[in-house]
């Protein structure tokens, strides 16, 4: 071989050796077997390269790398499926976060694409990590949604919070100045930990018990005063009976007196010796009878006056009693209305719904007519609170409540179920008619001209509707409608989902 080409071969070999050393350093750390062999290979190639030993190392590395390739592929596939599973679980917790739900859907699409290199896998891992980070922030904003709690626990907590919020509203409308209630309200708006939620529940239960005790004492007072008034009347009546008994006795004795005098006149007439004597005696008897009669008349007048006084006293007591019972009846009626009214929207509350639905189901059975129920939930309501404040959220609830009520017929019924959810009852309505009615309401609601801080808001709601099935409980019917509402939410919101089965 010529000197020149020998020189060039040597240069190429050295270049190749350098390249292999750098490449092997790059892959160092992949696996202990490969690391050892790469170290050996670097030894064979540095200084004065020994290509024969290097070739042996390369052969061994070839075999190990082939196996490693399979391991990497399996590792990549496993990692991808673990990531996919984790993102899917996370999606359940992010239902209320549209932006994060969208983000997680995109990550799921990427996870299902072929992965060309470990760098792609790493970038996917980073994205998933980021999503978890966002989700944990959402978590800490919603303090009551404690970490690692299941969706059903969250739903339960939400239901408790809604119920608590309604109770607080009811009591606030009765006692607007109550400091404890104001503090509870503020806490509720801010969000609560599980412990705070429990403490608030206890505070409210205490309030309810106190309230019912004071109600009981009020009822006690009214009953006591009714009892006293009845006692007075009873005494007056027995006094009057006693008096009329003694008057009767007096009258009888005065009658006997008159009768005795008449008998005596009769005797005198029979035994009369002279007319003059008879005349005198008759005059004496007649004047005595006249005085007896006038005494009697006087006594009777007195008796009559006493009776009149007694009767008018009794009448006064009866009027007082009537007024008291009327006041009590009015108070009771007010209490019934206030315990069944939602303080914010002035619509019926859950208690009112519970009573009404029982009645409507019974009517549907008796009259063999269909009864439809719909659950309505405002879409992305949280974003109104977040963007414009809780007061704007409250106003929205009032407007929506009013609009829904005005869309109903007098035979229909509406209640605020809690939060941003309303429940509607449509007697004598089947699923087909229900669909038409709800679609009409949905469209009109989406056209409501809402404006906050000069910004026009487009508001929509999702609907779940079903009809009563004979034999089922009202809550089974409600749960079916609620599941349909859930489906409406997951189908993109602003739509009506109806159960096709009818009565
Ligand atoms: N202003 C106000 N907000 C309330 C009231 N009751 C419940 N909320 C809020 O309503 C929001 C309901 O939010 P989500 O259940 O996440 O539902 P959403 O934002 O409407 O979203 P989707 O129902 O999924 O379309 C929560 O932020 C509650 O704090 C209330 O009486 N007044």
TrEMBL record:
Keywords: Coiled coil. Pfam families: DGCcoil, GGDEF. The keyword DNA damage does not apply. PROSITE patterns: GGDEF. It comes from the Bacteria. It catalyses: 2 GTP = 3',3'-c-di-GMP + 2 diphosphate. Residues 255-285 form a coiled coil. Its EC number is 2.7.7.65. Residues 369-501 form the GGDEF domain. SMART domains: GGDEF (SM00267). This is diguanylate cyclase. It comes from Alteromonas aquimaris. The lineage of its organism: Bacteria, Pseudomonadati, Pseudomonadota, Gammaproteobacteria, Alteromonadales.
